[in-house]
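S., here's the first fold you wanted:
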Amino acid sequence: MCRSFFQKLLWGTGALLVSLPAWSTPPPASSNDFRQIVARLQDLGYLPITRAFVHGPNGTRIRHDAFLWAVPQPLQRAVDEYTWNLKNPFIRGAIIQFERENGILGPKGMSEGRLHPAVLHALFRKTARPDRYAYEWAYVTKGSGTRQPEQLHVWAHGSHFVIGARGKPSALGKDWIWGTLVNTGVLGSTPNGTWPIYQRLPVTTMRGVFPVPISRGEYQALAGKQVPQWGGAAVRMSARGMVNGHPVAWQPYNDPGIRWVNYFDNGRGIHYYPRAGYGFPQSAGCVEEPAGTAPITYRVLHYGVPVTISASGFKGHSALS
């Protein structure tokens, strides 16, 4: 790390001291560093959100971050859940998309959305490229406690052609531009929350262990036994575990040829996986799609798009394929 480019970064605090040559605007160098960085991302179109409050009962202030335009209520609720700092998934997503648009992140690269020297250097130059995409958000609904199947919808600001069968524009629609049935993880292994897309791969190999639900008796019988950490791995691990309070046996897997992958949370991704049906929990934690819709979702999404996983059902005008 070049000391002349980067002196000190206190993650999530806004205490950022930098020394960068040839910047066209003054580099951040005070307690307002975080505000300057956010303002720059806003000016370039990567972050159409600002920190705001509304007045509640008895004069109390309630956090209610403001978009530049009206957004779906679930998106507003998702934004309000997170502290306004550099760990915020919406701010991290803006940084990741800035990296991709400005050549810092390659087409198959991986980013955590952190402010490393190359990002800071590029962000405050006159040649910084603005975001060329409409603002997008991916919303995965589990429909817990309802008869509604699990679904993924993509929302984009403004009016767009809704994507229909075979990935072709079908009609001019408002905001919800794409939807598909999906599968999330068994035993709640796809947690609720929001994360930005940090890596995109047209094809990859996925390795790990699948949580197979077992009885308490079967769990006891597996005491002291081990399995590979993934199919064919030399490193071994306990053959049993717990997922959200449920006893499981770990089943190693090593699956090549997994296509149309958008990684968003610690190895969890949105991708194609062959199943007999879709719309209910079946995966080891990823969001699985059918063969006919996965390549379209891959084309629609891009680096930095926030992905929200919710236990709720989907409400609104669906663009479900």
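And the second, which I think is the more interesting of the pair:
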Amino acid sequence: MKKVIVLLFLSVLLSCVKAGVPPIADSQKAETINKESSSKEGASSNNGVIPEYQVVEIEDVSFPSVKRYTVRVRVDSVLTSSELELVSRRIIEELEVTKPHNALWIGYYLPDSDTDAAYTAGKAVWAPDGDWGKADESPTGNYSKHKLSLSIGNATGIEKEEVEVSGLALDKRKKIFFDLVAAQDRGVGDSEAYGIIAEQYNVDESTVRKIAVEGASQGWPMP
């Protein structure tokens, strides 16, 4: 249920201001890197230091004869292009050995983001021509045609500053978002839920709506 709510929030977000398992498209322009592109080049631009990361989940989303995995990774901050390549290549190298595959989708998440929601700190796709949809065009374990496609930032392409609600502490905004989703999960209608939460926290209903957009775009935790 909460995933449906997130998608509804993101629909509002994209219509007012302008989610994440493949093949859902996002608004980020992907940077595709050839397999031959040396990870050493990325390392030199980042002094050879790979940012700290934690693999939270590896999910098998294969279909007959095609092995595909989605990987969800926790990082401390939004990754730069070089950082994204360094971490992604490290993960890819490990999975080439432990989980031979046709394609990988790697989503990166900020510390306070829900890893069941859209990515918030970057995305990488490792597949033939860097295209998840072409996973069946190479034999499993053969990476000769693979390229690394990178997307910087979050899935919406919206910067945090564009949707940040001022005047309330971050912790309070997160509680409002959490309780709003919980209310809607219980079957409370959208309009009624906004009103209930507004009264509960003594804020305007419009503020609750803005927090809903902020929380959904930033991948805040949900019930």
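Why I say that: The chain has seven helices and six strands. The mean pLDDT is 81.

Talk tomorrow,
H.
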